Amino acid sequence: MFFVRTASAQDLAKVSALLAETWHATYDVLYGADKVSEITARWHAVPALKARLERKEAEFVVADNGKELAGMGYAAMSKERPKTVLLHQLYVLPRYQRQGIGRDMFAELETCFPDANAMILEVDPRNDAAVAFYAAHGFVKVGEAKHTADDVSGVPLHVYEKPLGG
């Protein structure tokens, strides 16, 4: 059984490995294995994760069973939109998907921002599992965007939003 808790610096190497495995399983077919390896080497390296862990007005969670991490989630208050949380990451290892771990991490992240009135995210519309997950959890498509990161610049994204209680 996995429980959701706030991540610590000691988790970051495991989170980095979790993200690499999950990204390859999810995105190799979309971006190619080499591109995914390049992205994860930079975006999911321990120093990049440490910066997220230390960010104010953010929450970084992991799903832990005492032996391994099955998932991770990261959300932070938007710098552009007041009272809005941006869900940056929500990933579960493929072997643990569809067991409620993503739901549990998402439920925790939703409650971490009491002053927020909305949560937004961007998702590759070709990531059918993620799109279905977010739709099932109350998100609706509100727009479109494009990746601005150099590795995947120009890749279309869909923007989803969900009202929060705050």
TrEMBL record:
<feature type="domain" description="N-acetyltransferase">
    <location>
        <begin position="2"/>
        <end position="162"/>
    </location>
</feature>
<dbReference type="InterPro" id="IPR050832">
    <property type="entry name" value="Bact_Acetyltransf"/>
</dbReference>
<dbReference type="Pfam" id="PF00583">
    <property type="entry name" value="Acetyltransf_1"/>
</dbReference>
<dbReference type="GO" id="GO:0016747">
    <property type="term" value="F:acyltransferase activity, transferring groups other than amino-acyl groups"/>
</dbReference>
<keyword id="KW-0012">Acyltransferase</keyword>
<keyword id="KW-0808">Transferase</keyword>
<dbReference type="InterPro" id="IPR016181">
    <property type="entry name" value="Acyl_CoA_acyltransferase"/>
</dbReference>
<dbReference type="InterPro" id="IPR000182">
    <property type="entry name" value="GNAT_dom"/>
</dbReference>
<protein>
    <submittedName>
        <fullName>GNAT family N-acetyltransferase</fullName>
    </submittedName>
</protein>
